[in-house]
Design goal:
Helix content is 38%, strand content 26%. The chain is an alpha/beta fold. A seven-stranded mixed sheet has the order 3-2-1-4-5-7-6, with helices on both faces. Helix 1 packs parallel to helix 3.
Length: 200
C-alpha cells in the first residue's frame, strides 16, 4: 500500500487508538511487556501512547516514533496528562535512522502487521539496540490452528484495505528470520497474539 494512503488510514483511526489507550486495552500484556525496561528506550509505531502508563519513568528516558501526525498528537496529549517527558519523532519507521547501539531497549506493540518489510525493520532495531539490550514485542499474526489460519488468510485483503494491517503474518518466523534471538515468548488468543522478549 502506498505510504501516504497508509498514513491517512492511521490518522483517521487515531481517535479510536486514543480511546483504547484510555480504556487500557491489553493493559495487562502491555504492563508485563515493559516491566523492567530501563535506560534509553525507543518505542516504534507508538500510536496514541498505549504503553505510556506502564513505563517506570524514573528508570526510563523515552524516545517514541510514528509516521502518523495525528497519532503523535494524541500520544503527546496522553504523555502530558501522565506528566511524562517523551521525545516524539514523526517519521516512517522503515526509513528512520539512529546511530548504532543508541538504545538499551526497543519496544514495539502491534506494529509488524503494517510494514512492507517487517524483517528489515527488526534488523534496523537490532542495529539501534545495544549488545546488552533487549527488544520487547507484542504482536498479532497467524493463529495456532488450521481453521483460524484459513479465516485470517481469507479476511486479510479486507483487513489490509480497511485498517492498513496484515492479519496473516507469521510473527515468530518473521522475528527468527530477522536474526533476533528469542529469549522468551507467550502466546495468547489461540496463538494470534505473541509477547516476545528478544536480544540481538
Amino acid at each position: 500500500m502506498e505510504k501516504q494512503k497508509l498514513i491517512k488510514k492511521f490518522d483517521k483511526q487515531s481517535a479510536i487508538y486514543e480511546e483504547n489507550t484510555r480504556k487500557r486495552m491489553m493493559g495487562e500484556w502491555r504492563k508485563r511487556l515493559v516491566e523492567g525496561v530501563q535506560g534509553d528506550v525507543l518505542e516504534i509505531a507508538v500510536g496514541a501512547g498505549a504503553n505510556f502508563p506502564y513505563y517506570d519513568m524514573a528508570q526510563v528516558k523515552l524516545t517514541a516514533a510514528d509516521f502518523s501526525p495525528m497519532m503523535l498528537h494524541r500520544a503527546r496529549r496522553i504523555a502530558d496528562e501522565l506528566r511524562m517527558q517523551v521525545n516524539l519523532i514523526e517519521s516512517d519507521i522503515e526509513t528512520l535512522e539512529f546511530p548504532e547501539h543508541s538504545f538499551d531497549y526497543v519496544v514495539s506493540t502491534l506494529s509488524l502487521c503494517g510494514y512492507d518489510n517487517p524483517e528489515q525493520v527488526l534488523r534496523n532495531i537490532s542495529r539501534w539496540c545495544r549488545p546488552s539490550g533487549r527488544i520487547c514485542l507484542l504482536e498479532h499474526g497467524l493463529g495456532g490452528n488450521v481453521l483460524l489460519k484459513s479465516t485470517q488468510h481469507l479476511l486479510n485483503p479486507i483487513a489490509r484495505k480497511v485498517s492498513g494491517c496484515h492479519w496473516n503474518r507469521d510473527i515468530i518466523q518473521i522475528v527468527r528470520n530477522s536474526g533476533l534471538q528469542i529469549e522468551r515468548m507467550e502466546p495468547h488468543w489461540g496463538g494470534m497474539i505473541h509477547l516476545i522478549w528478544a536480544r540481538v
